[in-house]
Task: inverse folding
């Protein structure tokens, strides 16, 4: 296996800071066998539902199961695509509208592998990982988010 099998920390407390994203990119400049990076950033939207505007989402997860499912998704992506490295981070706790809650970063020698892997990863994470979002409205009420 060409990738690290050490357990990766996926969950971040609160929003994922732009500085963290920039630092992640900078750390890859020494890996000169990489020809392409693909990044997905999921941002909390200020959706309006039944007249109420979403101010934030409070994320929770069944962490042991979520970590296991994410590890399986990572292994599947490494098996299916020719990747150099992959990083997945998801927020837990409160993330305000406009802030980043999901950061998926994949690298490969060629752009096709990283592009296809990124699409696979984001869709599979959304469909299979037990992460739950409670939408908090500007008036203080809340509802469980539909995962779309």
Result:
């Amino acid at each position: 296996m060409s990738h690290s099998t050490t357990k990766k920390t996926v969950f971040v407390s609160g929003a994922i800071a732009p500085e963290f994203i920039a630092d992640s990119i900078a750390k890859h400049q020494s890996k000169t066998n990489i020809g392409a990076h693909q990044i997905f950033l999921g941002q909390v939207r200020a959706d309006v539902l039944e007249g109420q505007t979403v101010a934030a989402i409070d994320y929770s997860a069944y962490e042991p199961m979520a970590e296991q499912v994410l590890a399986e998704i990572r292994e599947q992506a490494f098996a299916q695509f020719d990747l150099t490295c992959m990083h997945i981070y998801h927020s837990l706790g409160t993330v305000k509208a406009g802030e980043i809650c999901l950061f998926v970063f994949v690298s490969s020698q060629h752009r096709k592998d990283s592009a296809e892997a990124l699409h696979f990863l984001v869709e599979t994470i959304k469909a299979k990982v037990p992460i739950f979002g409670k939408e908090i409205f500007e008036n203080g009420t809340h509802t469980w988010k539909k995962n779309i």
Remarks:
- Residues 1-6 have pLDDT under 50 and may be disordered.
- Helices lie at 18-27, 63-80, 111-128.
- The two ends are 33 Å apart (CA to CA).
- The longest strand covers residues 83-96.
